[in-house]
Amino acid sequence: MASKYYVIWVGRKPGIYTSWDEAKQQVDKYPKAQYKSFKTKAEAQAAFSKGTSAAPNSKKPASTYSKKPASQSAKTHAETVSDSQYDVEIYTDGGCEPNPGKAGSGVAMYKNGVLTELWYGLYNSFGTNNSAELNALHQALLIAKQALANKQTVHIRSDSQYSINCITNWAYSWKQKGWKRKVAGDIKNLEVIQASHALYEELKDELKISHVAAHIGIEGNELADRMSIYAIDKKDTAFCRYPDPIDLASILSLRTG
């Protein structure tokens, strides 16, 4: 359990962090950053959900957070976080029950800040959380490639630091060593890592990939999470588009990972 929880309302990547070193990177020299530490996760989540009205010396709520109506139940409540610099935002998540065990992947896609598509699938009865996260990121890269070809700007948000590092960082060293680890030997999930890294290399100059804090009520992350568990329940090995119309409250009320 973390000794402290750091809430960042205004910074490079708003969210809840358990490491001050990581939190500091989001606020250091950031204009008018707003953040505060809390002793418990529950206090941090409650403060974050209130927007900057809960921040020190704050006079108004942050405009980047759009709250759902007060009548909506806590179970289905989520905050939207939009990056207006990008035409397309893609949230990814993977789930596994237990780990290792039954795994599935999910994606939520926004265009101009509006939820347009949900995807689920890639069920594996002998998967891991890491393999599910990597599969979701790979699918996001495939979607990004199509969007970039249509002259749209793209931001992918994954809650898996492992997946992001595999594709954007560690793969360079592994590739130089013949796709081997220096000490540990074989690389797990190598096939999807290689495919994803190749896509990343092709798209990286036009693409942004960043980490998003998990399970703190950010709508896109919550929806991708629901889709990953939905994939496990449906046992769909293909990657399937969730049918329209999208009933947001209904989907957010599905079980979580």
From TrEMBL:
Keywords: Endonuclease, Hydrolase, Magnesium, Metal-binding, Nuclease
EC number(s) per entry: 3.1.26.4
Named cofactor requirement(s): Mg(2+)
GO biological-process terms attached to the record: DNA replication, removal of RNA primer
SUPFAM superfamilies recorded: L9 N-domain-like (SSF55658), Ribonuclease H-like (SSF53098)
InterPro entries to which the protein is assigned, alphabetical: Ribosomal_bL9/RNase_H1_N, RNase_H, RNase_H1_euk, RNase_H1_N, RNase_H1_N_sf, RNaseH-like_sf, RNaseH_domain, RNaseH_sf
Residues spanning the membrane: none
Enzyme class: hydrolase
Biased composition (Polar residues): 50-81
Catalyses which reaction(s): Endonucleolytic cleavage to 5'-phosphomonoester
Task performed by this protein: Endonuclease that specifically degrades the RNA of RNA-DNA hybrids.
Family stated for the protein in its record: Belongs to the RNase H family.
Quaternary context: Monomer.
Protein's recorded name: Ribonuclease H
